[in-house]
Design brief:
Number of domains: 3
Number of helices: 22
Radius of gyration: 24 Å
Oligomer: single chain
CATH class of the largest domain: Alpha Beta
Strand order of the largest sheet: 1-8-7-3-4-5-6-2
Shape: globular
Structural class: alpha/beta
Bound molecules: phosphoenolpyruvate, magnesium ion
CATH topology of the largest domain: TIM Barrel
Largest sheet: 8 strands, mixed
Distance between the termini: 22 Å
Length: 562
């Protein structure tokens, strides 16, 4: 479990690899709630109300400019936040409060945002997550109206270690890796916005570090995003070692392989065409997971077939002639969509999600398969299709049949449910490949909500029970001669990657930024050594023991500063 064990070392959860030394700069706290005192009777209410629109326009423009200068996930998150700042409902409600209740513009924005956030929270799931974005916009608007520095990442001339409770999504998306050398948060988990973006930018990051709140501006720290340790006032020997570590490559230069030439295709996880273009530029060998949810989010109905064809074709174009694994819609649980997921489930993670949504709404899947098939036909990409949240062989067979009806012959299944991992051999009788979604597989194996920071120590694929399930799935692949890859976050863990290969995993798919690090580690170990590492990990009693035992055997990690 995470704990502060002594005065000089804080321990959290390793979220993005790499070791860096720097000076702490804390994320500026948002201003407190503005005074509820009504405006004086002499104030021109119409003019006061106009300041809300002016502030909203400036905040929207700042965020839109930041989005335009960003790419991939960062651009997406900033775009969503800018759209929220531009949403007239927040400004309308704030203006109404100024005019009708004589609220100050800042207080009116504050209360209006609270109302919108509350409505989103009531919707649950991913909409509830958006409540954080509304508060982020609120804090920016209030700062703008009060003429104070906006909350969030400080604007400092020299590089620094960013420390805070958790980064607001828009802050996380604006991180400049040339200035933010490392990140430490007391909240968040390995799948939080902060962790995902840090990995995609290659910034070392430790999350869920309880003592992080005791770090103050100017503290000198060493952040080890591989071990999860933050060392206060590191001694000079330690600092020297970090200073002399080899620079990390930023591009995958060679196809993935072990030291003895066992091929392990290294693929990218993407959510849209921009991500695909960035992954291709980063040298990814193909796409191992194309999450298609983005095209469906924030809508009242599924996008039409034509629109989908265009979206998929743009992704295929970035990987002409290479493998692109498209995952069909994974709605439900943390990604509820009003037109396919029930609103009133008591346990959405155990409810109608992933492939299960096609039972009540078969046309959504049918349209998607039709669109994928059309885009694939017009492209030279090697298009594979897989279904999320498959639990039984019957579901796998049905999915394969549906794909075949659309001429999609490479149809596979995601293995994210322990039942599927244990019966992969049966799932692969008809399905032609499997891809382990280790994020959900870990969640279901450990019965630990993947979003909960308190459960972060349980939510790791280093848990020996999860490794046993991966081994079971790979045995099913070996028995049928079908490939079993990994496309969950575990693939991007530089020490876990060789273990997965040793367990029999055939390809690894991850955020493109992690590819060169994983490749650099893989090429130092033979397949037999990977198998030994897998044995060592599975023989461990705890996740921490497994990780420590494997890391101590991989000397290259220290050489590479990983
Ligand atoms: C997973 O569960 O590991 C996975 C890759 O799917 P997602 O993270 O989109 O649920
Ligand atoms: Mg999943």
């Amino acid at each position: 479990m995470t704990a502060v064990t002594d005065r000089s070392v804080l321990r959290g959860v390793a979220a993005s690899p790499g070791r860096r030394v720097g000076v702490v700069a804390r994320i500026a706290d948002p201003a407190p709630a503005p005074s509820p005192e009504p405006l004086a009777t002499s104030v021109d209410l119409a003019a006061a109300a106009t300041t809300v629109d002016d502030a909203a326009a400036r905040v929207r423009d700042q965020l839109a400019a930041a989005a335009a200068g960003a790419t991939g996930e960062a651009a997406e998150i900033l775009g969503v936040t800018a759209a929220m700042a531009a949403d007239p409902s927040l400004a309308d409600e704030a203006r109404r409060r100024v005019v009708e209740q004589r609220a100050s513009p800042a207080r009116a924005v504050w209360d209006a945002a609270e109302l919108v956030a509350e409505q989103l929270r009531a919707l649950g799931g991913m909409f509830a997550d958006r409540a954080g974005d509304v508060r982020d916009v609120r804090d920016r608007l209030v700062a703008e109206l009060q003429g104070v520095r906006p909350p969030g990442v400080p604007d400092l001339p020299d590089p620094f270690v960013l420390v805070g409770r958790e980064l607001a999504p828009a802050d996380a998306a604006r991180l400049d890796p040339d200035r933010v050398v490392a990140i430490v948060t007391s909240g968040g988990g390995p799948t939080s916005h902060t962790a995902i973006l840090a990995r995609s930018l290659g910034i070392p990051c430790v999350v869920a570090a309880p003592g992080a709140d005791t770090l103050v501006d100017g503290d000198h720290v060493l952040v080890d995003g591989s071990s999860g340790e933050v060392v206060r006032d590191p001694d000079t020997a330690l600092v020297d070692r970090v200073a002399h570590q080899r620079p990390r490559p930023t591009r995958l230069e060679r196809p993935g392989a072990t030291a003895d030439g066992h091929r392990v295709p290294l693929l990218a996880n993407v959510g849209d065409a921009a991500g695909a273009v960035a992954a291709a530029a980063g040298g990814a060998e193909g796409i191992g997971l194309f999450r298609t949810e983005l095209g469906y989010l924030g809508r009242a109905a599924a996008p039409g077939i034509e629109e989908q064809v265009r979206a998929y074709a743009a992704v295929f174009e970035a990987f002409a002639g290479r493998r692109v694994v498209v995952r069909t819609l994974d709605a439900g649980a943390d990604k509820p969509l009003p037109f396919v997921t029930p609103q009133d489930e008591a346990n959405p993670a155990l409810g109608v999600r992933g492939l299960r949504t096609s039972l009540a709404h078969p046309h959504v899947l049918e349209d998607q398969l039709a669109a994928i098939a059309r885009a694939a036909e017009a492209s030279s990409a090697d298009v594979w299709v897989m279904a999320p949240m498959v639990a039984t062989a019957q579901e796998a067979d049905d999915f394969v049949e549906r794909c075949a009806a659309h001429g999609l012959s490479r149809a596979g299944v995601m293995v994210e449910v322990p039942a599927a991992a244990l019966r992969t051999r049966h799932l692969l009788e008809r399905a032609t490949f499997a891809s382990l979604g280790t994020n959900d597989l870990t969640q279901y194996a450990m019965a630990a909500d993947r979003e909960l920071a308190e459960l972060a120590p349980l939510s790791t694929a280093w848990q020996p029970a999860v490794l046993d399930l991966v081994a079971a799935a790979c045995a099913g692949g070996a028995a049928t001669g079908r490939p079993v890859g990994v496309c969950g976050e575990a693939a991007a863990d530089v020490a876990l990657a060789p273990v997965l290969v040793g367990l029999g995993v055939s390809s690894l798919s991850m955020t493109a930024r992690a590819l060169p690090d994983v490749a650099a580690v893989l090429e130092t170990v033979t397949l037999d050594e990977c198998r030994d590492l897998a044995d060592v990990a599975r023989a461990s009693r705890t996740a921490d023991d497994a990780r420590a035992a494997v890391r101590s055997r991989l000397r290259v990690l220290a050489d590479l500063g990983l």
